[in-house]
Amino acid sequence: MQVTALTAATLVIPLRNPTSIAARTMTERHYTLVKVATEGGVEGLGFCYCGNAAGWVVTSTVRDLLARHVVGRDAHHTEGIWNDMYADALLMGRRGAALRAMSAIDIALWDANAKAADLPLYRYLGAARGDTVPAYASGGYFLPGKSEQDLAAECARYVDAGFGAVKIKVGRVDARADAARIAAVRQAVGDEVELFADANNAWPDAASAIRAVRRWEQFDLGWIEEPNPPDELAAHAAVAAAVEPPVATGEIHQTRWDFQQILDLGAAAIVQPDAAVCGGVTEFRRIAALAAGQGITVAPHWLADLHVHLVAATANATWVEYFTDTEVLNLMEVFRTRLQARDGALVLPQEPGLGIVLDDAAVERFSRDGWR
């Protein structure tokens, strides 16, 4: 099944409200979309998040550097295409924008191949689960004027909707203030609900992270996510050895070599690869296999419409991160399809491929450069 064309588009989608995590505030999000067309008429869709500015850098990498390794190739040659793209991108950056561009292309190829087989992606990959996969409701962001009571009420709504696990942001305020926020949430959701805390690289060193997290151990956190900057893996390992909650990390990390280092250092008990960041479906599967070999679980980072398939096809995967609306994960503004949540789980799509249908009018509205 030969690839006959590859096109890409940059989307800039404003957030309805300025939204903050530990160290930055966002007013818009940038994404790259990729389409691959094949001689059989099958079209595959891929995508990635580019950050809060300059998304065109990723899209340009798709068009001007990597497309030549895809067009004219058999779409099923995902391993060979991946290796050729990676080799050609060595001088342009073995991480960062180059890997995000590779990820979007690789996802599009897998989507096309599963569609050609008339199978949902999780079955094409080899299903490890049946009808649903576990999900946690992700939210708890810092917003202007948002109180502890507002945060607690938000998380209570997730539980009322059937979710048995929720995640909130921490690290933008001092550890005492965060302790009050966490306490309010724990009281609102009860003791049986899993509560995860995401620091988004808040602390520059291990000592600061350890001191903060120890204040929160009484609240029985399911994990503390990204306590330190992504390259400070020795700090992650020190935190993991010193605090009670398991450490989770990996959403910014790329390739199996990054994750091998995480595993070798004991820097996390849960790894969080994002297939739209780490190198696509191809590299996600390699990372999951590395983790399985060391008894480490996988809980991928956001983009539930993609990761619902990968969690369903990965025996050592646990959770899908799920956003109940488009306030934060606003790529959903250009999807006509929506995942169905049921009793705290996500129902697996049965349409071929990813099962995503684009809203072409929304794509046109948010695109800065059109499909080319």
Q: Pick out the low-confidence regions.
A: none
Shape: globular
The Rg value, from CA coordinates, equals: 20 Å
Provide mean pLDDT, rounded.
Answer: 97
In terms of quaternary structure, what is this? single chain
Number of helices: 12
* Strand segment count: 13
* Estimated share of beta-strand residues: 15-25%
Largest sheet: 10 strands, mixed
Which H/E pattern describes the elements?
EEEHHHHEHEHEHEHEHEHEHEEEH
Sheet/helix structural class: alpha/beta
Short description:
By secondary structure, the protein is of the alpha/beta class. The protein is 37% helix and 20% strand.
Report on this structure.
The protein is an alpha/beta fold and 372 residues long. The protein is 37% helix and 20% strand. It contains twelve helices and 13 strands. Strands 4, 5, 6, 7, 8, 9, 10, 11, 12 and 13 form a ten-stranded mixed sheet that branches. Strands 1-2-3 form a three-stranded antiparallel sheet. Strand 4 (132-138), helix 5 and strand 5 form a beta-alpha-beta unit. Helix 1 (56-66) crosses helix 3 and helix 5 runs parallel beside helix 6. The longest helix has 20 residues, at 97-116. It is globular. The mean pLDDT is 97.
